[in-house]
Structure prediction request, 690 residues.
Amino acid sequence: MATITTSPTQQRAIEMNVLARKQRSLWQDALWRLRRNKAAMLGLAIIALAALMAIFAPWIAPYDPTVNDTAHNNMDPVFVGGQFTNPKFFLGSDELGRDILSRLIWSSRISIVVGLVPTSLVFVIGASLGMLAAFYGGWIDNLLMRFTDIIYAFPDLLFLVIIMATLRNSPVGDIMGGLLLMFVALAIVSWVGLARLVRGQVLSLKEKEFVEAARAIGVPTRRIMARHLFPNALAPVIVALAFSIPGAMLAEATLSFIGIGIKPPTATWGVMINEGFVVFSQSPWPTLLPAFCISIVMLAFTFVGDGLRDALDPRMKN
Amino acid sequence: MPELLEVKDLKTQFFTRDGVVHAVDGVSFELAAGETLGIVGESGCGKSVTALSLMRLIPQPPGKIVEGSIMFDGQDVLKMDDDDVRAIRGNNIAMIFQDPMTSLNPVLTISRQISEALELHLKMDKAEAKKRTIELLELVNIPSAKKRADDYPHQFSGGMRQRVMIAMALSCNPKLILADEPTTALDVTIQAQILDLLKNLAREFRTAFILITHDLGVVAGMTQRIHVMYGGQIVEKADTGELFANPKMPYTWGLLRSIPRLDESRKAKLLPIEGLPPDLIAPPPGCRFEPRCQYRREICAQQVPELKHIPNAKPDHEARCFGTQEGGWLANTDWRQDVGNAKELEAIKLEVADLPPEMKRIEAAGETRPSP
Prediction:
């Protein structure tokens, strides 16, 4: 067997090669793992598509989603065939003769903002309260966490129904077509889970030696929180947020379905299911199509959430 | 010479559900600028709490420094407000922690972590701090420092990380470095390298350091003086050479007997210190070591011995033992030959045998600690 010999220069080259290897942060590692997850990438593609659809809705949608055409109402989608179809309406029309395809496209706008805005609010409220409670402990922790427990004790849907039902018809309910109220209601209900998560994370992190080491070099409290604790607690928070986006979308759809969500004639998938349900015995399409859209987007977010979890914490993958 | 650090009668206590733990109970010592000191003792004797007290890093609650003064550079650390203490931490007093695997923040690059102290205390801007960081990494012998500076902690081995911790401690050119068991988590070959590095750099920069360890072998070549701690108190103070040549406290004898020696026959048995360290919630009323001491007499359980100068020893050699102090019964005892009263030893072993099983397990775990 031949022995492999390396000259000093070769040896040096090998060493240099090791050193020249690209530095990767934890985040870059996670991104790399996420990229290799096919389900997550499919999910991201679907979300990107939905986002594009939402952004370019005015150009993509063939008709105005709120214009009635009572002469051509209750049309079936073209692919169903039969006499109740009209080539004008590819996915059919609803009771008032509005084009379902256009309404579906416009609805994605509402769904996307309803997914994103309350989740950002949840992030700000939950993360800051959880962090304050855990870091300062004592009576601050007690006060904040008991408050959290009280909110947590309410059934989510009941809480949402109470807020929406009481405020929907007040002036607050009209700001931004009812969207603002929806954002606030969803945020109020769902920040508690995140606050608890962040608190738990920070509680365990603040006992770590690197925090003590930071203190030992004289780093002020606020900087320890922002620079040492927060980035370390971020991974599970990102995963929780990824799952909270479809949760908010579903909540909006649910509320709109039972008639206390976004006010018609604004099109949202939930509103469409609500309206389609009335004619369900004649034609299931006005109900099924928006339901299908909701399912697909929810599934996409779940894929991404799972992918993020596996990417950020490879130990949890089994 | 004016002292850099003067600790007087320091008492740090932890208020727990089971009672008040007297973790540090009346510790006094001095340290001159550039001087090196070893604090030795077994687990739970108050070494680390002493170090943390010096920087006021005791978690409060449950801990509290209840008495004493810590004069650092002419100022009492215990009377400063929080901002002043923060200005001292890392700047004048720096600390090296035990486990380099956990004392670096996993999400920040090495250079950002070292720069932090430079930016905070020396008000350097980012570029200056980065430059100085690379110099520091070179100083602690990290190869290709310029490239490694942007690496994350997980890309470094344990020994490398401890070098980074040393670089961090040295960053603001402190007057005092506290090294709390800096090599316990490292393997033996790396241990020696890290200790050498610490010693040489401290000498080069005329930095005083306090090395805290449970391992007499570690301090032997490292520090000028050694203080032995037991049960929250200093029980013996001496120059390093003097302590090894002429120890004057049965606890120190016990520690020395339990170190394997190269010049001893292979058959010689290591003699452990029988018994358990004292419960610091209710410490023994007399000498803290009395319950485990084979040389004990009645007086040891009744009166508390003072830390006093020992006859037939160097002038600054002090011990807390009635037996070796003026007129004591151990004045002429050769600890290598005379291992104490066999009857007392049996009594101590029996006492341990009577303990509930969960306590015994603690003792068993204590004995498996790595020996030097």
About this structure: Chain A has twelve helices and no strands. Residues 100-136 of chain A form the longest helix (37 residues). Chain A has a mean pLDDT of 82. The interface with chain B takes residues 19-20, 23-26, 208-210, 212-220, 227-228, 231-232 of chain A (CB under 8 Å).
